[in-house]
Design a protein that fits this description.
- By secondary structure, the protein is an all-alpha fold.
- Helices cover about 55% and strands about 0% of the residues.
- The protein has a two-stranded antiparallel sheet.
- The two termini are about 30 Å apart.
Amino acid sequence: MSISPFFRELHSSYQAEMDDLTFDSEGRDVLHQRLTQRRGELPFLLQMIELSPEMVAVIFHKGFHFKLPAVMDHLLMHESDAFPDWDSIADALQLPPWALDLTQVVLKEPRGEWFLTVAAGLEYMYSKPRIAPAIKRINDDHDSDADGNDGLNLLDDSEEMDANAREEAGADWMVEQGFDRKD
């Protein structure tokens, strides 16, 4: 399976976000409560759909049933500026009523279709245990280049700077909202 650098990068951030939401400081599983809280904050979170889509996409955890995995596998090959139309992705999904309600709110946003595509891709990757080893294998298969890069960062300098800026801005925004900074 070929996975674009965009989805490879966001996969680890989405995984970290899910891990962060799952347990409280005492080790209790609080994922359901935290997701319910986040879903209730959707109008506020919509400000972040472009800046930190992985932080908002978690609201759709367990909200997509993937009827046509081949469509999702194909989606993961695309960069963020070359996604298929949302309608073609939506046809490959089945959503429970609560997720359909959230989808209707998101679709009113200028970048709503783009965000839903990202959210579906991230949730698909998260739900497939074979994805993480595939990403690791892709990264491990790249030998060091002349600059000493070990293949772990497959983005060019401008993409890396943009990604780092988005991540830092998202983290700053979350701290301003009262959340702890993730390390």
